[in-house]
Amino acid sequence: MHTHSHSMTSPDRMTRRFKWSLILTLLFVAGEALAGWWANSLALLSDAGHNLADGAALGLSWYALRISQRAPSQAKTFGYHRAGILAALVNSTSLVVIALAIFYEGAHRLLRPEVAQGEAMVAVASVAVIVNTVIAVWLRRGGMQDVNVRSAVVHMIGDALFSVGVIVAGLVMLATGWLAADPIVSLLIGVFILWSSWGILKETVNILMEGSPLEMDMDALVETMRGVPGVQGVHDLHVWMIASGMPMLSAHVLIEDQALSDGARVITAVNHRLQEQFGIWHTTLQVECLDCTPNGLYCTLQPNHPLVHHHDHDHGK
Length: 317
Hints:
single chain; alpha+beta; Alpha-lytic protease prodomain-like; 8 helices; elongated; disordered N terminus
């Protein structure tokens, strides 16, 4: 049995919003980088690097929205959703490199403070707060139900918050002349970049490794399936992600020996439970009768013989 769903998000409108948000972000990054170089502000340069990374995130979301509209084919039966995941892996890795570079330069400037232009820091960071807030609100109106849009909005909000940090550093330098405020803020930005990129990196690697969704309670999922009236058991269970927000499930479901139409009703009930409680809309369920010999809940594929399965015989779970 097979179920399938399609997103109700308006991709054409969102791709246009992403395009203009990306153009606005890149223009601002160029201006902020020039201002940071002129003002000798590591905080501004770090924030420009962070904004550039978020511009890449916007570009990734834009690309993912466009490429995901391609229809599945003989060569790509699942479509092109994984292209966005591969791009996310590259993007998150580059974020880690940027964060490490900021740590290096920040530590150097803490040991040997350099004069920075506080006025320029405050002025440019104020513009950054406005730009990032406008983009976040604009994209949020377009569809927060889409995980790509939601991640882009979170990036923009994070940029706005850290631009506020740059403003604070500039004001502190203007008021007290404390030069360490600039590298300290840059180090905080580096920590935030590393923290946020680690979450992206962890999610993308898990998806590429065919791992089950990180937030999904697998024990609850199994109990939900077994709790459907007519289901006698579940085995050979696989739950994985094609892309963010696109969980897939396949399993063998044991039912009593009965008419085909009655068995179909049981499977339909299982699908409804999976959709309502776990958001799994794409399933492949193989029906088996009680006379079949049940295998373990999870199975281990043998690489050298892809048609042969090894089972763990853990029937208690």
